[in-house]
From TrEMBL:
It comes from Polaribacter pacificus. The keyword Transmembrane helix applies. It holds the Pfam family PAP2. Residues 61-174 form the Phosphatidic acid phosphatase type 2/haloperoxidase domain. SUPFAM superfamilies: Acid phosphatase/Vanadium-dependent haloperoxidase (SSF48317). This is Phosphatase PAP2 family protein. InterPro entries: PAP2/HPO (IPR000326), PAP2/HPO_sf (IPR036938). Gene3D superfamilies: Phosphatidic acid phosphatase type 2/haloperoxidase. The keyword tRNA processing does not apply. The chain crosses the membrane at residues 27-49, 58-78, 106-126, 133-151, 157-174. Keywords: Membrane, Transmembrane, Transmembrane helix.
Length: 186
C-alpha cells in the first residue's frame, strides 16, 4: 500500500512537472524565490501596524519571524528523520523531470509549503475580521508551493504534508499569540 502511494506520488509529479515549458520557466523561478515576495511581506507588516498600532504591531511582526524560524527548523527536523531524496536527486525519476534548480537537501516535507501556509493561516486569522479581503493571502502558498512541483524539487506528498503542517503551525502560533497578547497588552 505504502509503495503504491509513493509510486502514484512520483507519477503525479512527473505529469505535473512535464506540463511546464521553457516559456514559463522564468516565471516559476521568480515565484519560488522568497525575495520576490518581499512586497507581500511588507504589505502585511503595514497592515499589522495600521490595524494594531505600533507596539502590538511590532510584537506581531516579531512573532511572525519567530513562527517562520520555528517552521523552518521543524521542517529541517522532519527532513532529517525521513531523509527522502528530492525528485531531482532520485535516480529512478530524475531523467524524466524538467529541473531548473538542483537543491541537495532532503525533500519531505516542503519548507516552502510549510512556512508559506503557516504565514498565510496566521495572517488570515489575525486580520479576517478587520480586512475581509485578507483571504487572498492564500494565493501566496498555493503559487509558492506549486513552484516546487514545477521545478521538480518536491513531490506532491511533500507539498500536501507541508501545507497540513503549516496549517497546524499557523493555527498554534495564532492561539499562542492570542494568549500572550491578552497577558502583555491587557
Amino acid at each position: 500500500m505504502f509503495e503504491k502511494l509513493i509510486q502514484l506520488d512520483k507519477e503525479l509529479l512527473i505529469y505535473l512537472n512535464n506540463l511546464g515549458s521553457e516559456r514559463w520557466d522564468s516565471f516559476w523561478l521568480v515565484i519560488t524565490n522568497q525575495f520576490y515576495w518581499i512586497p507581500l511581506f511588507a504589505f502585511v507588516i503595514f497592515l499589522l501596524f495600521r490595524e494594531f498600532a505600533w507596539k502590538k504591531g511590532l510584537f506581531l511582526v516579531l512573532f511572525i519571524f519567530a513562527m517562520a524560524a520555528f517552521s523552518d527548523q521543524f521542517t529541517n527536523f522532519i527532513r532529517g528523520v525521513f531523509e527522502r531524496l528530492r525528485p531531482n536527486n532520485d535516480p529512478a525519476i530524475n531523467e524524466m523531470l524538467r529541473t531548473l534548480i538542483t537543491p541537495q537537501s532532503f525533500s519531505f516535507t516542503s519548507g516552502h509549503a510549510t512556512t508559506s501556509t503557516a504565514f498565510a493561516v496566521f495572517v488570515f486569522l489575525l486580520l479576517k475580521k478587520r480586512i475581509p479581503l485578507i483571504k487572498w493571502v492564500f494565493v501566496f502558498p498555493v503559487f509558492f508551493a506549486y513552484s516546487r512541483l514545477y521545478l521538480g524539487v518536491h513531490f506532491p506528498i511533500d507539498i500536501f504534508t507541508g501545507a497540513c503542517v503549516g496549517t497546524c503551525i499557523g493555527f498554534a502560533f495564532y492561539k499562542l499569540q492570542a494568549f500572550l497578547v491578552s497577558k502583555l497588552f491587557a
